[in-house]
User: What shape does this take?
Amino acid sequence: MKISRKVRVKNALGLHTRPATAIVKLLQGTKASVFFTHKSETVNARSIMSVLMLAATKNSLITITIEGEDAQEIMGKLVDAFEARFGE
Amino acid sequence: MRKRSWENLSMHLKRGLENNMNSQKEVRIKGFPVSEGIAIGIPLFWVLEEESIPAVPITLGEVDDEINRYRNALSSSREDLHRLKKDLVQEGSEEAVTILDSHIQMLEDPLITTNMEEKIRQMMQNTESVFHSVMTDYENRFTRTTESIFQQRMADVVDLAKRVLSHLSPYSPKRFSFADVPPNSIIFAKELLPSFTATAHVSRVSAFVTQVGGGNSHAALIARAKGIPYVASVNLQEVQSMDINCVIVDGKSGEVILNPSPETLEEYKHKKTDLKTSVQTWQKAPQYASETIDGCQIRVLANIGHSSDLDNLEELGAEGVGLFRTEYLFFQNRTLFSSQDEQYRAYAALIEKVGNRPLVIRVFDFGGDKDPDFLEQTEKEPNPVLGCRGIRFLLRHREIFRTQLKAILRAATQGNVRILLPLISDLNELTEARRLIEEVRGELKLKGYRVSDDIPVGCMIEVPSAVLICDALAKHCDFLSIGTNDLIQYTLGIDRSNPGMNDFCYPAHPSVIRMIKMVITEAKRHRKSVAICGEIASNPIFIPLLLGLGVAELSCSPRYIPLVKRAIRQTRLLDAFELAQHVLTLNSSLDISQVLLEAYNKTDLAKEG
Assistant: This one.
C-alpha cells in the first residue's frame, strides 16, 4: 500500500535536530519506506541528516509518502507527532 | 565558506602566560552572553589543528577490510557517545542528553552507514578520504541553506565526523577531552563542538569563550545544562596576542575581563559568591533526613525527565519524584503516544523503579517554550507561550489525553502515583479532566482491566489566574504544585527564554512571593499539600523564605538535591518564619533580594563558597 499526505511543520524552529531525531526513532522497528518531500526535494525520512538538509522551517508543508504494509499505522503516528510539535 | 579538514584530531593546549603579574593592564571585551554565571580563572587556548587527508587508492581485495575498519570506527564512536551520555544523565543535564541522543541516532543514519559503504566500494579509496569527501559534501549542502538554525546544526555533523575520523586513524593522538584540563580553566576556542563541550565538568572548566557560536548552538545548550558560563562573539586574535594571567567571564553581561585589576577582581569575587549558579562541591550526598534545625520535616523530591534519571535517586537522597515530565519519555522510548499498551509498559516500569515512594506524573505538557532553542525565534507567529499548551492541548486532542490517562490508571494499581495537570487556568479544565479520568476508568473496567480507583489529581499553579482562583482549585483537586518558572514569566510578563531578561531579582519580586503565600494559605485551608517545583526550589538563597512561607515540599532537578537538603538542614524554621513575615512587608524585588542575600551570607553554606 502506498499513501501520501501533507502535513505542516508546527515547531517554531522547523524540522531541526530534535524533531528529526524523534522521527527517526519513531520509525525504528517499522518496515515501510517513508519519504518526506519539501519544495521538490525528496528524502528518506529515516535519515536525520537528510531530514535536516530539507531545512524545513515553521509552517513548511511536507508531503509524507509511505509505502508498505504498516503504512496506515505509521502515517497516523507521524501526523500525531507533527501535530504535537514532537513534544516541544 | 569556512574550509575544514577532517584529519585526525591533534589538539594543542596553550597555557596562557602566567608571569608579568604587575605590568598588565585590565582589558574589557564585550561578547554575546550565552550561558549565565561568573567565572574567574586561567586562560587555556584550545586549537583544533587542521591537516589534509591524502586519498590512497585501494585494491578490490582491500575493500572489505576498509569497510570493516569503517564499521569498527562507527562502533567505537557509538561506545564513546553512550559513555558520555551516561555521564550526562548522572549530571542531570537533560538537554545535553537529548543532543547526544541525536548524535547516536546520526551514527545509524543510512547516509553514514550503507551509503558510505557503497561509496567506499565505488571510489576504491581509503576510508578516511571517502568519508572526508562525503562529509564535505554534506557540509556544503548545509551551508547552502539560508536558515541559520540549520546552518548551525552543521556543527553536529562536523562533531560526529571528527569523532569517527579519530577512531579511523591508527596513530590518532590520545582523544581530547575537557575532563583532562587543569582545574579553573577558562577555555578560549574558535568554536565549540557539542560533544566536546559535553566532556567538560564545572570542577575543571570554569567558562567558555568563543569567537563563533550563538545562544542557539547545541554547544551553548550543553554549557547551560552544565551550568558553565559561556560568552561568544569574542575576537580571539585580539586576546591571543596578549599576555594574560587571569580572566573574568561574566556569562550574564557577556563581559570578558583580561588581567583584571585587584579592585575588579575583588568586585567579581563578591558577585560570584552572591549569585551562586554553578553546582559545586555539594555532590557529597548527605543521607541525613531533610529537616530544619528545629526538627521540621521537609520533603525533597526530584524533577525527572528520563526514567534513567531514576537510577541515582536513592544516592542523592530524593524521597520520591515530585514531577515526572512524560513528554520526554516518548523521545527516549520512541512510543510517541501511539498505543496504550506501550505507554502502560513505560509507566509500569517507572513505577517499579520508584517503588512505594511518591511519584507525581505530569500528563503531556506540549507547546510553549519547552524547547530552549525557542530563544531566537524571529517569526511573527502568535506567541506559543500564550497558546495551546498544557491542559489546553490535551483537552483539544482528547484521544491523546485519554490514551495517556488509561495507561496511567492501569499502571497505577501499583505504587504511589498521582496525576498532575499542567497549565490549569480555569476550574472547568480541572473538572473536565477529572470527568475524563472517571470516564476512561469506567471504560477500562468494562473491558476487565484492573485500574487504580483513587488516584489523586493535582493542578500545576503556573499562571496568575490559577493563583487567584486557587481556593476553588484547592477545593476540587487533591494537591497543588507551584511551577515558579512559568508563574514568574506570566506574572511579570517576562519572557524567560530571553537572555536579556534573565535576572536574579525576578523570583524575588513581591508579586511572586505573595502569590506563593496565597496558594499556600488556600491549600492549607482545604488541607491539600503544595509542592514548589521550579528553579527557585533549588536555590539555597530562597529556601529559608519558602520554608517560612509554609512550604513543606520542594521538587528540584536531582543534581541539586544534596544542596537543597543542606540548605534545609541549616535553616531554623522560627527564623525562616520571621524572614518570611519581614519579606511579605517589602514592596520591591531589590529590597527582597537584599534581605535574602544578607540572610544567606550568614549561613555556613555561603561561607563554604
